[in-house]
Sequence to fold (79 residues):
Amino acid sequence: MSESAQRPRPVIIDPLTGEELVPSPCVSICALDENDVCIGCFRSGSEITDWFMASSAEKRAILARANARRLEQGSNGLS
Fold:
C-alpha cells in the first residue's frame, strides 16, 4: 500500500454551509465502459456530472453506489 493510501484525508468544512466537504473519488482514469461507468472511480456518467452540484449527503450516496459497483466487479480499486 502506498504512503498516500495509508494517510486519512483531512476533514474540510465548507464555511458557507458548515457541511463536511466530500472529496471527489476521481483517480484521473476517465473512461466510461459499455455500462456508462467510469473504469477509474466506478461512478456513472450522470453521477460524475452531478457531483459538482450534489450536497455532501448526495456525494456520500454516490460514493456508496460506486463502491458497490467496485465490489461487484471484484476490483480493489488499485488497478
